[in-house]
Design brief:
homotrimer; 452 residues; uronate isomerase, domain 2, chain A; 5-stranded parallel sheet; Metal_Hydrolase (chains A, B, C); Uronate_isomerase (chains A, B, C); Uronate isomerase (chains A, B, C)
Chain lengths: 452, 452, 452
């Protein structure tokens, strides 16, 4: 009975357009519309969801093409590694996404295995050469209405601007302003980032005042290019204002190469507070992805760089560190703050209670390690009591794997339908109300939360 | 099949009398037995479960009557806000309680909406004027056998005493001793609280020894008035004894306006320990509601006061901070300590293991943000393994919304029936044993735990 | 439908041999093959799962035989306590194990109660006198293929060696190297432990270098006696190397009775790191059971000693404290590190993400307070997304209750079958794949992880 209700709810939204308000696809892929490269480069090498589990089963990252120049990679050998370890993915969302991609996008129904590896590879390679498997054709076939990318403030957004002016492309690809690298005074990357931002904005970033002005200027540029949101990734979301003079002092000290850890933290916490202040002023939605230890395995980082599978969830917390920000802007009209976590204890203890009081706060969908049927169900069960459905963000796919976008949204729709059905059959919701919520979650909700 | 078993279990307890061992209804409501005021004042304005989610959807608290003198409130306008935002409550327990109240208590089956708002308001207003909707009539109709209130030690319990002597009232309304405000030396509220307590007890509270004597005296008074339990709300439940001389020193320093944060904490931790000591002596059950950051949004607190929706769950912990108290009294005969949490990670990690060893400790029912079908189910699944059913507290409604009491207990009975049924169909429990447990949870268990 | 699939999956593995890679049975029980003593001594007194919940219901530990010399115990009186409080165990895994033992092992189907206590006791006593209820007969009947014990490095493993040479015994009983007591410089137990180790190894442990050499020597001895693994229990799993000179300094200071708390911690963290280093060298699997506060109720510890029910779960954490160890050995070929926790928030936040990247790391099965159907299901739901099935440890029974071994493994097989079935009916897994995983979890997986 639950299954029948779930099926009816899912059918209502299965074909709805995809709104993807947070992800990591490169806009240039759609601008260029070149054929995708070989299957390994499309599906394996750049996807740390896939490479990390293969690595966990003993396949060295370089044998998966990570850190290897494209011209030196052996796509077929990489593909064979993946197929040989297919068992490692059973029960994981990667298996679901992957089978969906093979079947729904490429029409291939054979299960990966050592025996089938070459056959599937050949078929995929052939498909990828066909015009209907180019990025724009897939964009249309996937029914993507909005696709948000993630971009540095110094980015010229050339691809976004060109796409907007391209009369042959009808999709909406919007940039997202992510200023993380300006928050790290005292690291080697900080001063070069300031320089790049100064060049992009034409504003001297040698002072804190200049940095703030440059960031505001670039936010306006992003808005003009269609952007509706910002994103920030931090380990801990302290957001406490500093007097300008104090921020200026730390800025100058950091440029001089002399900044204490405490000052660097205070500087970062001040910037996070200022980002909220800017959002109140310019209306850009503020997303927060907090609580990830980045690059925890030093030997892997040294050899292969970031995003290679050893970013790990931290113990999270929003209520206390965000208190100053929420005291300042929590009830500011039009301010939208979307909170994401990879520590699921926060769902019922912090995020839902915050979203259930502050007009500005929305409970971000499960992210990264938690974007699976089981974890999404736990999220709904933990968040709905205190925050209902109308204070949740709607699904985000957060992916750089373009072909997995429909599978990811489809999974979310199925899981939400099943969750809603469980409420219907236990008389916690009428089926009519559930239908309304199912539609809302894929349409009105993300449009409202992300101001699309 | 599960549903059929659950139905049989629920039928067994659906009509059982309500034992409400912890809540916030005012005893005077039952003493006066005056008609309830308008629907907004009954259902919306004083219920922070309702106002917080409306606030989260952008309705200012004053438009809901919060902080507005009753004579200046527009009940109908408040009611319209609520009905217009009915969607915000879908999937939440508020929606369940509310529909139950409308339907089961008032016989109204129309769903709230902008269109139905005035119609429902009119019907409710008419009902509230009828004699069978006065507090005492509802008390009888609800089948309430015991109703515990929450009271300050300085309270004269006049309403409780009058109800006990009123030959026309047959219910049992018992006070609960809650001495939180005496635990905060260094705050502005502390010295006036001491004064009030001195007046009520006739004992000088200018010394720590006097405070202890006055508290013991008032506990005796509460017991004489029918009280069986105390309650204490703290952020962290440190409970460590101080030598009397040290407690005395801090007491006098605080009265002189000179108390350090560390001393204030030590003083509070000592009092919590002494509360347990007093319970061992006088038999009053000790309830602990720990782990809530109170009044986190300063602007709202300054304008609207406490209990306005921005109390937020903290990271909890009982095992370490309670260790001295449990070393002292954990195995004391007759001592009952009921532990509540809003951090549900404590259920399996701390509360169930403690209740599964200490004769004194009982696992308190899910509270506040966790009093929903999903969270109650998680509580049972997390606690039963280590503590079984017989070391859990039985349901508490914790409400100031008098008309929601039967709906809240009914929800608990349904959820426990469903949980027990899931154990029956997976052969973890016989149906006979499940029936016995279902009955026990609504009767013997709360009677035993709260000494009713 | 789910039930039918679960039944087919369970049937596939119900009769598979038992691999028990972690537990606390005494090898001498199998060497001697003497009849088990009376039912109370077999089932109640030594099992802190049972005694703790009886204690929580007010039965003093000494009335359960704890801390009482065997000759002074009244087995029948102990047994009556247990039967009278049978209700306390309803819904707990103890009830399931116990009923399974009574029914499947001893053929008794009467439910314990005050009325049935003596009857069951008499029947059990009669059974225990029969030859087919001796340890070796049960070992065969239970289908145990491998049974790992837990042993001190100074142990001479005489029982293990004798069993290996006994032509009449065909089972495999292997020791596990557990060196906890060498990690606690500054405690009274430490110096005597060093002395015992020196005697066992013939190596002077008066220096840190000597301790390391002695431990390596005993590990080789354990391996020669069939051991494949080590185990370590710590409160927090810090694992940070010290320079040898620094470790030597602390070792000598501790022997002189002058070691600071900080130095003792650093020493322990260094040893944990060195244990990993040794495992990389000699191939012994490294198990970590972290996060338990031991002996929290001082009065009970003083009177009854350790393992008497008041060990309590701590807030856990692996990602940060293990970082140095994982930087050093996380990708070392052949290194196996199995992480166990009693803080279930770690499953999705730490253990699964670690097991999903590091080739060496495996997600240990739920342990102690979490070895119940509900908690095992939560473990699977939390771990599978990030780590799949092939990076989990397979079930461990962790028991000193020999007769409960088959019931515990049977419960695990049923729960895994039900979990897999839930994936099958929601199309997250084919039934064929589920069958393969079910088989793998009871066979290939523990063989691989524990190198059996």
């Amino acid at each position: 009975m639950t299954r029948n209700v779930a099926r009816r709810l899912y059918d209502e939204v299965a074909a709805a357009p995809i709104l993807s308000p947070h992800g990591h696809v490169d806009a240039r892929v759609l601008l260029d519309d070149a054929p995708f490269p070989d299957p390994a480069t499309l599906f394996i090498t750049p996807d740390h969801y896939v490479t990390r589990l293969l690595h966990a089963h003993g396949v060295p990252l370089d044998e998966l093409g990570v850190g290897v120049p494209p011209e030196d990679r052996d796509g077929r050998a990489i593909w064979r590694h993946f197929c040989r370890h297919w068992d490692a993915f059973l029960g994981t969302p990667v298996r679901f996404w992957f089978e969906s991609e093979l079947s729904d996008v490429f029409g291939l129904d054979e299960q990966p295995s050592e025996a089938s590896a070459d056959r599937i590879y050949d078929q995929l390679e052939a498909r990828l050469a066909e015009p209907e498997f180019r990025p724009r054709a897939l964009f249309d076939r996937f029914g993507i209405e909005v696709l948000a990318t993630t971009d540095d403030p110094a980015d010229d957004l050339a691809a976004h601007l060109a796409l907007r002016e391209d009369p042959t492309f009808h999709g909406r690809v919007v940039p997202t302003f992510r200023a993380d690298r300006y928050m790290t005074p005292g690291t080697a990357a900080w001063a070069p980032a300031l320089t790049a931002l100064a060049e992009a904005s034409g504003i001297d970033t040698g002072s804190y005042a200049g940095l703030i002005e440059a960031l505001r200027s670039r936010r306006a540029f992003f808005r003009a290019a269609g952007g509706t949101a910002t994103d920030t990734g931090v380990l801990t979301p302290e957001a406490t204002p500093l007097p300008d003079t104090e921020a200026e002092r730390i800025h100058l000290a950091a440029l001089a190469g002399e900044v204490s850890t405490a000052d660097a933290s205070a500087y970062r916490a001040n910037l996070l507070y200022r980002f909220a202040e800017m959002s109140v002023d310019d209306g850009l939605v503020m997303q927060l992805h907090a609580g990830v230890h980045r690059n925890t395995h030093r030997p892997t980082f040294d050899r292969f760089g970031p995003d290679t599978g050893h970013d790990l969830p931290a113990v999270g917390g929003y209520t206390l560190p965000l208190a100053p920000l929420l005291a300042g802007f929590g009830t500011a009209p039009g301010f939208h703050l979307v909170l994401f976590t990879v520590d699921e204890t926060l769902f019922s203890r912090e995020i839902a209670p915050l979203a259930g009081f502050y007009p500005s706060v929305f409970a971000g969908a499960p992210w990264w390690f938690l974007d699976s049927p089981a974890a999404i169900t736990r999220y709904r069960a933990a968040v709905t009591d205190s925050a209902g459905f109308a204070k949740t963000s709607g699904f985000i796919d957060d992916t750089r794997a373009f072909c997995s976008i429909p599978a990811r949204h489809d999974m979310s729709r199925r899981v939400d339908a099943a969750y809603l059905a469980s409420l219907v059959v236990t008389h916690q919701l009428s089926e009519d109300d559930a239908l309304g919520i199912a539609r809302r979650l894929v349409d009105e909700q993300p449009r409202h939360v992300f101001k699309l």
